[in-house]
């Protein structure tokens, strides 16, 4: 099911926001970032927004995803940039306010359609495949 990510606002006083899910929840979570934009009160300065997460070796990595400036690029569409929670959004430069919006999807593992076929035996799977016929000359 898709849920709206209510978004967050990064400012000089609130420089980071962490989106996390319950560790006990065994569902898969996807957070997608759609838009990053400057809001009322922003100065004409560079506002750099970073995404802080963990790589495959569980090391923290920070990647800049937006560099906004009121006079030249006050808004950036990220086309549903998908992230795996937990993830932190950080205002690495500038004083904002910068608003981030997107959506949060929860995929319940028992809902996954590919698991419905797991009860087939290997023999049944082999019977479902059509035999390869030689090409006619």
UniProtKB/TrEMBL annotation:
It is found in: Nucleus, Nucleolus. InterPro entries: Nucleoplasmin, Nucleoplasmin_core_dom, Nucleoplasmin_core_dom_sf. This is Nucleoplasmin-3. It comes from Eudyptes sclateri (Erect-crested penguin). The keyword Nucleus applies. Its main location: nucleus. GO terms for cellular component: cytoplasm; nucleolus; nucleoplasm. One of its GO terms (biological process) is chromatin remodeling. One of its GO terms (molecular function) is RNA binding. Residues 112-137 are annotated as: Disordered. Pfam families: Nucleoplasmin (PF03066). Plays a role in the regulation of diverse cellular processes such as ribosome biogenesis, chromatin remodeling or protein chaperoning. Modulates the histone chaperone function and the RNA-binding activity of nucleolar phosphoprotein B23/NPM. Efficiently mediates chromatin remodeling when included in a pentamer containing NPM3 and NPM. Interacts with NPM (via N-terminus). Forms a pentamer with NPM at a ratio 4:1 (NPM3/NPM). Two pentamers form a decamer. SUPFAM superfamilies: Nucleoplasmin-like core domain. The keyword Nucleus applies. Residues 7-105 form the Nucleoplasmin core domain. Residues 113-128 have a biased composition (Acidic residues). Keywords: Acetylation, Chaperone, Methylation, Nucleus, Phosphoprotein. Belongs to the nucleoplasmin family.
């Amino acid at each position: 099911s898709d849920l709206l990510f209510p978004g967050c606002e990064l400012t000089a006083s609130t420089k980071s926001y962490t989106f996390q899910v319950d560790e006990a929840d065994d569902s898969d979570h996807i957070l997608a970032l759609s838009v990053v934009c400057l809001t009322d009160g922003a100065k004409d300065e560079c506002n750099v927004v970073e995404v802080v997460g963990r790589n495959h070796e569980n090391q923290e990595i920070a990647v800049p995803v937006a560099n906004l400036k009121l006079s030249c690029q006050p808004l950036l569409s990220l086309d549903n940039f998908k992230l795996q929670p937990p993830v932190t959004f950080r205002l690495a430069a500038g004083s904002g306010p910068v608003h981030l919006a997107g959506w949060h999807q929860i995929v319940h593992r028992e809902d996954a359609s590919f698991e419905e076929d797991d009860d087939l035996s290997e023999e049944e799977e082999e019977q479902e495949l059509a035999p390869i016929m030689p090409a006619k000359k």
